[in-house]
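Protocol step 4 of 6.
Sequence for O-fucosyltransferase family protein (Salix koriyanagi) entered exactly as in the expression construct, tag removed. Do not edit the line below.
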Amino acid sequence: MALKPFVDRLGYDNVPSEINRLRCRVNYHALKFLPEIEEMSDLLVSRMRNRTGVSNPYMALHLRFEKGMVGLSFCDFVGTRDEKARMAEYRKKEWPRRYKNGSHLWQLALQKRKEGRCPLEPGEVAVILRAMGYPKETQIYVASGQVYGGQNRMAPLKNMFPSLVTKEELATKEELDGFRKHVTSLAALDFLVCLKSDVFVMTHGGNFAKIDYWGSSVHGSSS
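Step 5 output, structure tokens:
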């Protein structure tokens, strides 16, 4: 699928809701990804299912904890004083109107945390999945950008679920090089691997998660 900018409303006024729903479903099924993206995603799914030598189900985890997401959330996260200072400067630079003088942010962060409106940290995701009953051996495919905090931030999740991989670990650099020209191509690979998973877990909202959630419902996967 390669789209140029266009506008085509899925819903129209004065049209019965069931007709609008039908149009939405027909448009969804009419979308086709480029053959090379479909083929590569099928290869990733096959490797994901056969990592242990036998066919296994797998979970797809859409982990939203990139620097931009963390900054825009204006939530407080575990970190050193130096890390918090750098994040404060980053927020002040990127979102000066929201930052103001910074004095109001601590109360805002506490409020958002209590209301469950903060992106989940990888360690929090691990605790939740374990509490839901998923065992240590669960095969997990992680769809994510560059996680804020790097490997140190990912360590709690990897320690509790060691069978955790990304597309970069399932495929060779050469296999993925052809998709790096367009960041949306890499996102499309993640989307399809998530869509074909047995369980789909999202840690924060967004169009990717919403579309995959709806697609999983259409195709019969659990979310």
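Step 6, annotate. The two ends are 25 Å apart (CA to CA).
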